[in-house]
Amino acid sequence: MTNRRLKLLARYLSSECTEEERVGVEKWIGSSSENRHSFETLKKIWGLSGQKAEEWRSGRSITSFRLRLKTAESGLRNNRGGTVRLYKIVPRKKAAVIHSISRVLSAAAVILLVVGTVYLATLLKEFAQERKTSEEKPVVSYEQISTRPGQRITLTFADGTRILLNSASSLRYADVPDGKREFFLSGEAFFEVVHSDRRPLIVKTDDAVIRDMGTKFDVESWPGDRRTRVAVAEGEVTLSAKSQAGSQSATVTRGRYSVVMDGKIAVPPSYTDIGENLAWLKGFLLFRNEPIAGVFKQLRRKYGLHCSASDPSILSRTITATFTGEQTPDEILKIIALSLNVNYRSSRDSVQFVLRKPFLRRNKTN
């Protein structure tokens, strides 16, 4: 039989088929004596274990069958050695030998038939159980929200929890009412979590897991940075590092931050200026002794500018500055270039910082 036929018979035997399928099966059963005999045999094997369909397991049926064989075999043991003795039989007639071999082969065929039928019935019941289980599982759909450079959005959920998603970030979550509150973050987001004892909120990044019961905290995990930074404004969270060698975790409380990097807690919970950590919520852009490579990344996320340096020495420099969001991108570029004592040239969304040419004085001659 084909898998399709087996699955159909499984639904019929478990009374889960449609009216159209029921008519088709009964028509197939009555179409030939061979089909009818096969079905009756399968129907008997279906109830062989005395269990319900959902409790049927192939291993149990085969084990039970082998146990019966073992019991029958023990009846053949003699009282002396406790094992079956084999005797050499000298055939008197060729026909008798052929008859004995035929009986052995017939017995073997019966055993194979029973085992095969049990296995076939097991497959039928497992097909039916798989179908029933798949129908009982709730359909979970995932929502994904992404922001463009310069765009920030606020998500409010039915329980009152709010999530503020930063620019160039994405957030994926399961849309299950009253289900598990689990989010997958790439980028940066601020979480204002409504307390729930039975449904903690979980945030997952590429290398960390953050568990929270009800608090306010910020999570940074930018693609390519290979690190996750958590800063807590209220309450506390548990920060765990994903690692093949084992899991490390730390409790981060109000006014502290912690960093996961390379599969471990790289920065233990330490005090931080929460106002500066959350400055992006007001549209601010803060640099505190920031390497230029990090400045370039933030300019790309906030304004979509692709910055580069014509000389490696520029990348080794740092900058400290605060931009309130009132300045235009061009004004910000000018201030950065002035701070670094370099020039820049731009074309649409591409910006290159270049070294200034030295000023040469010419000596006057008489």
Explain what this protein looks like in three dimensions.
- This protein has 366 residues and is of the alpha+beta class.
- The protein has 3 domains: 3-136, no CATH class; 142-277, Jelly Rolls (Sandwich), CATH 2.60.120; 284-355, Phage tail protein beta-alpha-beta fold (3-Layer(bab) Sandwich), CATH 3.55.50.30.
- Helices cover 35% and strands 30% of the residues.
- The chain contains 9 helices and 18 strands.
- Strands 1, 2, 3, 4, 5, 6, 7, 8, 9, 10, 11, 12 and 13 form a 13-stranded mixed beta sheet that branches. A 3-stranded mixed beta sheet has the order 15-18-17.
- Helix 1 (3-13) crosses helix 5.
- The longest helix is centred in the N-terminal third of the chain and has 43 residues, at 94-136.
- It is elongated.
- The model is unreliable at 51-66, 71-102 and 108-112 (pLDDT under 50).
Q: Tags for this entry?
A:
366 residues; Phage tail protein beta-alpha-beta fold; 13-stranded mixed sheet; 9 helices; elongated
Low-pLDDT segments, ≥5 res: 51-66, 71-102, 108-112
Label the overall shape.
elongated
Beta content comes to 25-35%
Overall number of strands? 18
How many domains in all?
3
Q: What's the alpha carbon Rg, rounded to whole Å?
A: 37 Å
Short description:
Helix content is 35%, strand content 30%.
Structural topology:
Blueprint: H1 3-13, H2 19-30, H3 33-46, H4 58-74, H5 94-136, E1 142-146, E2 153-156, E3 162-165, E4 170-174, E5 181-192, E6 201-204, E7 208-212, E8 216-221, E9 227-234, E10 236-241, E11 248-253, E12 256-261, E13 264-271, H6 274-277, E14 285-291, H7 292-303, E15 306-309, H8 312-315, E16 318-323, H9 329-340, E17 342-347, E18 350-355
Parallel strand pairs: 5-6, 15-18
Antiparallel strand pairs: 1-4, 2-3, 3-5, 4-5, 5-8, 6-7, 7-10, 8-9, 9-12, 10-11, 12-13, 14-16, 17-18
Helix pairs in contact: 1-5, 3-5, 4-5
